[in-house]
Amino acid sequence: MLSGQELEQKEDKFAFKTKKLTGDWKGLRTRLYERGVDFEMEYFGDLFSLVSGGLDRRTDFTGLLELELHLDANRLVGWEGAQFFIFGIGSHGNDFLENVGSAHDVSSIAAPDTFKFLELWYEQSFLEDQLSVLLGLYDLTGEFDIRPTAQLFVNGAFGPGQDLSETGKNGPSTFPATSLAARIKIKPTPSFYYSGSGSRWSFRRPNQPNQWNTNRSKQ
Description:
Order of helices and strands: HHHEEHEHEEHHEEE
Helix content: 10-25%
Number of strands: 8
Number of helices: 7
């Protein structure tokens, strides 16, 4: 009989074969994972057709490519409590909102055509994970104002609420334009934590993703 720890290790070993489209690459992905290197590539596409009402009856497509790289520095180089995360996106297509005239985004992945880093951060944990500090390019909605409905429905109205989405001169640090931020988390018990963040520089305007900006905001 396997203990809980042994069973968890066994499940990790076969995770890539059962959960990844391309499998385990003859054991390579498992070996990389055991050394602290994990990566993913995902693609999302929304195809909409307006058949009644609206402003312009037409069919449009919008797509989003996501590339993620997670580095566990403890496994990789023995740096205890440290991890790095790199998240790049490639957005393309047309925003169907222009055809509908809705007050809410029709698609939650619509963004100006670009390829860029959405997240690029370093996190350090202390006191057996009871305290952690994160610094870098950071998407607030990865940890704040998480809406399970946003994972199920494509309409942008199911994303972050206006109490967060309307903050700051250019909006909060989230898709499709993030900013440099700092986040601190205090976790006194396994089931309870305090967390807060602040962002200073908003690098890119949402409608001009290749231009630099210097707006300030706090969350």
